[in-house]
Amino acid sequence: MPNSALDGGPDVHPLQTEGMSKPSASDTSSNTADLSWGAFSECGPWNLDRDKIAWSEHATVLRREARAEVPRLTTPGRVPPIGRLLTVVFVLGRAIAPWLIRKKLRRFASPEESRSVLSMRLRRAVEILGPTYIKLAQIISSGEGLFPGELVTEFKRCRDQVPAEPFDVVQRTIERDLGARLNDVFVHIDMTPLAAASIAQVHAATLVSGEPAVVKVQRPDIGELVRRDLRVMSWIAPFLIGRIPIAALANPPALVELFAETIVEELDFRMEASNMIDVAAMLHNLGQSRYVVPRPHPKLVTRRVLVMERLNGFNFDDVEGMKAAGIDTEDVIRTGMIAFMEGAMIEGIFHGDLHGGNLFVMTDGRTALLDFGIVGRLSGPRRIAFLRLMLGATTNDVKGQVAALRDLGALPADVDIDQVIRDLRLDQPTIDPTGLSGEELVKEVQRIVKSLLGYGASMPKELMLYVKNMVFLDGAIARLAPDLDILAEVASISMVFAERHGERIGRELGFNPDAFEVNLDSVKASLGLDSSVNRLTYRELQERRNLINKRMRDHIRA
Predict the structure, then answer these.
(1) Residue 213, Cα to own-chain centre: how many angstroms?
(2) SS3 of 313, please?
(3) Where along the chain do its domains lie?
(4) DSSP state letter for 157
(5) For 300, phi and psi rounded to 5 degrees?
(6) What residues contact 97, with CB distance under 8 A and at least 6 apart?
(7) Quick check: helix, strand or coil at residue 377?
(8) Three-state SS string across 60-72, please?
(9) pLDDT of amino acid 439
(10) What is the pLDDT, as a whole number, of residue 413?
(11) CA nearest 490: which of 419, 391, 350?
């Protein structure tokens, strides 16, 4: 147990007289009352009464204010924060210049070596630049398939190698935000964190009332640093347009805006705790009993401190451990896909940052979700557009899918949908990419990218989060269920949606749910399969991808 208050610490806060005493038997028996509305564990350390959560009334206002702040942070000013700008330019320049010289002198044995060296140097630069850039690297590290593999692999090292803050700094933050001495709130708190990330770190603890808990503590001055870095990024981004292929595809200013929308909401833990409540309620509404959300404490949540329920389970990569415990890993994947899609399409809310460190599998096979700093929210017309996009994928409605992308903001509002379909050749018969040469594959990718850029295509925040999560689930299938029949699962999930939500979907989209019919041709087309193919395991899909990637690499190398 660390020492109590720092010398000169604040006086005891009213928290010590409001709920911090040892609970009585009647209190303990009521700790499952919140199961009537939320997807929580059966034996809760405390009960959440949605009408009596001290911090919840501020969350909606805080979220609105955070979104309103984004344009101010991402509109380049006439003069950026000069000191920070010089630091960023110096660090990135020192990282890139040696690589650029070697490349011009043709000192790399292959394009893969070149990308690996650049990725390593960028990762080191990110670590020097600190939390904002580390957070960006962590987001990129979840984008396998969206970013170069070497960059993703290197940036994964940023997930668990962030230096922790000294415990005296952590203690000072807790005591200042809770307005109470540490020993008045916790009977024990581990000085060594369970994990340290870019925005915060997490410590195991036990409350004075006896409940085990986890304490998430924000790094000092992180809000000011993030905002300063966003202003620098927004000032640099326009100069990167067209300079490098990846930046050209991503549209640097739009990428900065997307990053800002994501990170500003993480700077106040009251919004994260509110996200936990909303996701738990969503999962309960959908009858998703295979997912568990840790309870945030009804009082011990502030801008920089979040006390929550402690849960335990298997690391998501521990396939052997799960199978030894009798857990059906295919069921874990299947449940994840359905819950994730249902949340977005039906309730308009979903966890926005799925990766191996943000969820684990409990001993009973249920999945616990962690870290709710990033949550996707689709409301009103945007949820309906997303619903149309997903439905079009199972009914082979190409025009409906492109129109839905337009309504989501991925394409300009005045875009000619028929012209987009013609330019992208979506009205043409499916071409199996495994039947193309490396040169043909590269040309096809270049043609599609050029067409999209010509239309001013962009990636809305919610769609980016959804795609990134699908990429994670794709990788999870490779580890947990490599022999899962992808086509059969898509058909099965489609029928689950029709049975559970057919009437609502029909009402919202204006069609007869009894006439709904799954057509997997567009799914097969997206995978480059002929319509006659009826079965495809994930293992077979990965073999196809590897072949395509090899041919493209061989052509580029040649």
Answers:
(1) 24
(2) coil
(3) 69-162+222-266, 377-557
(4) G
(5) -90, 60
(6) none
(7) strand
(8) HHHHHHHHHHHHH
(9) 81
(10) 92
(11) 391
* Six-digit token string for 496: 């689950």
| Cβ 355 vs Cβ 142: under 8 Å | yes
Q: What is the pLDDT of residue 290?
A: 92
DSSP 495-531: HHHHHHHHHHHHHHHTS-GGG----THHHHHHTT--T
* Burial call 241-264: b when 16+ CB within 10 Å, e when fewer: eeeeeeeeebbbbbbbbbbbbbbb
Q: How many Å is the Cα radius of gyration of the chain?
A: 25
Alpha-carbon distance 80 to 430, whole Å? 49
Tokens 């993030």 belong to residue: 226
Provide the whole-model pTM.
0.86
Q: At residue 246, what is the residue type?
A: I
User: Which residue type does 150 have?
Assistant: E
Residue 520 backbone phi and psi in degrees, to 5: -85, 5
CA–CA distance from 515 to each of 134, 248, 392, 510 (Å)? 49, 43, 14, 12
Report pLDDT digits (tens) over 360-399. 999 999 999 999 999 999 988 999 999 999 888 887 788 9
Tokens of 201: 């770190």
Neighbours of 133 (CB within 10 A): 22
**Phi and psi (nearest 5°) for 353?**
-145, 60
C-alpha to C-alpha distance for 343 and 283, rounded to whole angstroms: 7
The pLDDT value recorded for residue 251 is 67
Cα 541 to Cα 523: distance, rounded to the nearest angstrom: 13
* Inter-axis angle of helices 131-141 and 252-263, nearest 10: 100
Between the alpha carbon of residue 353 and those of residues 375, 376, 496, the distances in Å are 7, 9, 25
What Å distances lie between residue 425 and 13, 162, 398, 428, 444, CA to CA? 65, 45, 11, 5, 11
Are 390 and 501 contacting, i.e. CB atoms less than 8 angstroms apart?
Answer: no
Residues 6 or more apart whose Cβ sits within 8 Å of residue 79: none
Residues of the chain with pLDDT under 70: 1-31, 143-146, 160-161, 241-251, 556-558
pLDDT in tens, 499-547: 899 899 989 988 887 777 777 877 887 777 888 888 999 889 888 888 8
- The pLDDT value recorded for residue 146 is 63
Pairing of the two strands 367-369 and 291-292: parallel
Q: Which residue has the tokens 């100069």?
A: 239
Q: Alpha helices, DSSP H only, in 241-291?
A: 245-250, 252-263, 269-285
Query: What is the DSSP track for 41-52?
Result: -SS-SS---TTS
Half-sphere exposure of 142 (CA within 13 A, CB side): 22
Q: How many residues does the structure list for the chain?
A: 558
Q: Which two tokens stand for residue 175?
A: 């005591």
What is the distance between the alpha carbons of residues 537 and 472, in angstroms, rounded to a whole number? 17
